[in-house]
Amino acid sequence: ENPALVWDWYQWRRRLIAAAKPNAGHQSIAELAALKPGLTLVTQNVDGLHQRAGSPEVIEFHGNIGRSKCFDCGTVATSIDEPDRRPPVCSICDGLLRPDVVWFGESISLPAIEAAYAAAERSEIFLAVGTSSLVYPAAGLAEVAADAGALIVELNLDQTPMSALADHVLVGPAALWLPTIAACVREAVS
Predict the structure, then answer these.
(1) Pairing, β 151-156 against β 125-129
(2) E strands, 71-164, where?
(3) Do the bridges between strand 168-171 and strand 76-77 make them parallel or antiparallel, or are there none, so unpaired?
């Protein structure tokens, strides 16, 4: 109902995210990807911190707040011609731009779902980090990996519905556990 208000709110969030830095968890996942090529990261976060930490293959289930896309034609805007217009318009069709994130009631893109499920099917070790494990399709990824024979490791502040499925449940902050896991992998491959 109020596109300018929504645009301004997302611009505020974008400024907050731009000031944020990847934490030890983000950095450890990037290190794991360097140590074990082929690691696929599926994230529900929209902040781009995994990419800023150096993770090379990131499937963004809920999009990326750093991008904008057209309401009408879906074109992802690489630049905004009229930055003072709230919201700006698409350079292709003049439709209103919006953040490239999945809003409530919208579907995750089919290519993202297909890529995530394919990665889960071929995984040997599946780390579920900081998720409630309640919302599908993301919550189903661990089940797919388990059915394919992967070792399931859950890292979370609390146990979740996935805990019963997991081979290992590590309770605590990801920024604590992931550096420990990365150190173990680093030692094993050296």
Answers:
(1) parallel
(2) 76-77, 97-101, 125-129, 151-156
(3) unpaired
pTM here? 0.90
The question of whether 62 is a catalytic residue gets the answer: yes
Q: Quick check: helix, strand or coil at residue 139?
A: helix
Cα dihedral 40, 175, 62, 122, rounded to 10, equals: 20
Q: Mention every residue, 6+ apart, whose C-beta is less than 8 A from residue 78.
A: none
Note the Cα 138 to chain centre separation in Å: 10
Query: What token pair was written down for 15?
Result: 């400024």
**List 26, 50, 62, 168, catalytic entry:** 62
Task: Estimate the crossing angle of helix 24-35 against helix 174-189, to 10 degrees.
Answer: 20
* CB-based contacts of 82, cutoff 8 Å, min separation 6: 88, 89
Q: What is the pLDDT along the chain (190 residues), one digit of tens a residue?
A: 899 999 999 999 999 999 999 999 999 999 999 999 999 999 999 999 999 999 999 999 999 999 999 999 999 987 777 778 899 999 999 999 999 999 999 999 999 999 999 999 999 999 999 998 888 899 999 999 999 999 999 999 999 999 999 999 999 999 999 999 999 999 999 8
Long-range contacts (CB closer than 8 Å, 24 or more residues apart) made by 5-8: 6/87, 6/98, 7/86, 7/87, 7/88, 7/97, 7/98, 8/86
Whether 174 and 130 have beta carbons less than 8 Å apart is answered as yes
At position 175, the amino acid (one-letter code) is A
